[in-house]
Structures are given as C-alpha cells and as structure tokens.
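Dear colleague,

Thank you for sharing your sequence with our group. We've completed the structure prediction you requested, and as agreed, I am returning the results in plain text so they can be pasted directly into your records. Please verify that the sequence below matches your submission; if there's any discrepancy, let me know and we will rerun it promptly.
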Amino acid sequence: MAELSVYVDKKLKLRFKLACTAQEKPMSEVIGLLMKQWLEITETPSKSQTQAGQNVPD
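Please find the predicted structure tokens below.
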C-alpha cells in the first residue's frame, strides 16, 4: 500500500465520506476502485487507433 494525498472541495469530501459511511465502505477502498475503473477506460486504446494499425503498448 502507498499513501496518496489530494485536495478536493470540502463539501465534496463530506458528501463522499457520508456516502462511504452509509455503504459501510472505507473511503480508500472506494477511491482505489474508482481509480482502477478510470484507468481501464483511459488506458484502453480506441478502436480508431487499433484499426489504423498503430502500435499499442502491451
């Protein structure tokens, strides 16, 4: 595990904390899941890149 510090709007943090508490989930667990989902979307090559025959890193 590694520590990650970020700055967000206070109201956003409070809403997030309340939602995590309501779901009985640690905030770090939810953030980790959201980061993984975002990376899957971001790191997936678009169809136009693969159809054009561009090299896509493994």
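Summary note from our side: The mean pLDDT is 88.

Kind regards,
the structure core
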